[in-house]
Amino acid sequence: MPNARVRQLRAVMAESALQALLVTHLSNVRYLSGFTGSSCALLVTHDRSILFTDGRYRTQANEEVEHARVVIGKKAPSIQAADWINGRTPGPLALGIEAEHLTVFSRSALRKALPSRVEIRPTASMIEHLRMIKDAAELASIRKAVQLGSNLFKHVVKAIRPGVKELEVAAELEYQARRAGAEAMSFETIIAAGKRSALPHGRASAARVGRGFVVCDFGVILAGYCSDMTRTVYVGNPSSASRNFYQAVLDAQQAALASVRAGISTGEVDEAARKLLKKRGLANFFTHSTGHGVGLEIHEAPRVAAGQKEILKPGMVITIEPGAYVPGKWGVRIEDMVAVTERGCEILTSTGKELVTI
Amino acid sequence: MPNARVRQLRAVMAESALQALLVTHLSNVRYLSGFTGSSCALLVTHDRSILFTDGRYRTQANEEVEHARVVIGKKAPSIQAADWINGRTPGPLALGIEAEHLTVFSRSALRKALPSRVEIRPTASMIEHLRMIKDAAELASIRKAVQLGSNLFKHVVKAIRPGVKELEVAAELEYQARRAGAEAMSFETIIAAGKRSALPHGRASAARVGRGFVVCDFGVILAGYCSDMTRTVYVGNPSSASRNFYQAVLDAQQAALASVRAGISTGEVDEAARKLLKKRGLANFFTHSTGHGVGLEIHEAPRVAAGQKEILKPGMVITIEPGAYVPGKWGVRIEDMVAVTERGCEILTSTGKELVTI
After folding, report:
1. How is domain A136-357 classified at the architecture level of CATH?
2. For B215-229, how does the pLDDT look when each residue is reduced to its tens digit (9 = 90+)?
3. B75: how many CB neighbours lie within 10 A of its CB?
4. Which ipTM did the prediction report?
5. Can you identify the CATH homologous superfamily of domain B2-131?
6. d(Cα B344, Cα B236) in Å, to the nearest integer?
7. Any chain B CB within 8 A of the CB of A37?
8. The pTM is what?
9. Chain A residues 145-204 with CB within 8 Å of chain B
10. Does residue B107 belong to the interface with chain A, where contact is any CB pair within 8 Å?
11. B78, B40 Cβ separation under 8 angstroms
12. Please, which residues 266-295 of chain A have a Cβ atom closer than 8 Å to chain B?
């Protein structure tokens, strides 16, 4: 699989007149080579792929890396790559760097290690752009990760009861995730109860669950791929105001889901959710964007936000997660992951969305 | 507490003739302001500290931030900071950036957003240097995190038995960590059994535990501070060769611990461990460095590695973790966290180090 990806990348590099690209962002290195170590650089030229790492990763690199030569060295991986260029390539060379990931410090060290015949050119999202469209193997991996996430929700519901600490709920969820084979959670689990449900990023805390909404936003990493889902449950007997608030967010989520199909912009998807919440007088309480791409990273391209022009294409995988938050009072968010198809989308998250009361 | 830290930083900024520093590395922002959100920039001038973030973090910023003004905006936080500089400061200004953290892309966007009277100057490890010396509040937090880690080891021992999957052991450990209040693990738990014990970074996998060594390397995050410890246990009845191998690593670890005191270099600590393993004929199997600083981040300054000149000072907190790995056969690592004192060190990790057999 990496081989086809490298071929695609070489086509893009040729369009940009780059003779080589230094890949330093870990998930991009993994995408192209299969390597999962945390200290590495992948140099891609028109006919070679070379992974530079250090002695700690010798065995792992030999086991994991496909379609690239592995070089073990003592210097920083990108400096090893510079040394390789120094020794193996003659004449002028345009070397792309990943400007959104390489630090100012590393660029400067790279410049010093390279001869002046090498021109360093910033590139942006070159591999991320390829990664937006998931291939069949990736879609299969993502389906499995999302299914695992969906299956875990029942453990969340079981753990939530009045008086339990948010982090005890997270502990139970994460335990079950690990036992089911997850490598890790894809981000810090959000279990935000009562007034804390109004915090869009309310990581599980020592606060105890009382009466009211509990926002549960979590994901797993399985075989490298992330899942992401949110459900909001209610502890106690919801008032009709609570039910209406929940329903408004659910309607916004359904409206956004209904808008998804190849050919429309992600900004239009965001607008579909925002328009519905505006009708219900909640526009000002929807303080984040509608979604984001998911894959090897929990947040990747495309952004699904106001004004975004990126056009949806089959094979893109995005979240649809509108929410509404009244500071000091309550908050609701509902989130599915979907795969974009020609005529609509496949909703990957299988968990129901009617309001669960506990 | 942040106030004293900002004062120290201002003294360093003055030495470097910087009128302002743009802090973008999240743990540095947290160190100086208390803010734990994931999208922010802190601008420190000679008389002001301003934290820029976005609407998602309004409530959280108001709850957490001390000794800094909070500004909520829609642009990227560092661009908000540039706009503030544009509007509020007159005349030439030297603005430091964190070159080891800011990306080439962000630097370029920052340059475009700033007037030409502002000179952008790369800085390196300015705040990390301050963070090497832990203050009393930090030492107290670290002791608690390390104690929690030490307490959890009994759950690891209990979970390890022939036939169990490595990741089931990790699941049990992480569950107990969460229940005990850990916000998260400080890195991906390493449970590496049998031949996998020879992988210095053998993250817990679906492999089953059999006869032989099991390297258990894990840490928690508690109130923002990391712990890190490694113990290696043996499943079955160890041969005398296994025992000797274990003892060599333990002796190396003890030798390194005995060398720690204010005034010597971290390179000398590394040498103490390496020398012992060389005597036992294992020098080539110790393929990583002896340790690293720990605090708000799991890996921070100083490095405890061959040739390092950094001088130990009271209040530094480092790991001492030599290991030996024979690829395809076995590996052992033993790791404690210590706080450097004038005359030696305080070993923070309280778990015993005799070989535990299961």
Report:
1. Alpha-Beta Complex (3.90)
2. 999 999 999 999 999
3. 14
4. 0.86
5. Creatinase/prolidase N-terminal domain (3.40.350.10)
6. 37
7. yes
8. 0.89
9. 167-168, 170-172, 174-175, 177-179, 181, 183-184, 188, 198-201, 203
10. yes
11. no
12. 287-288
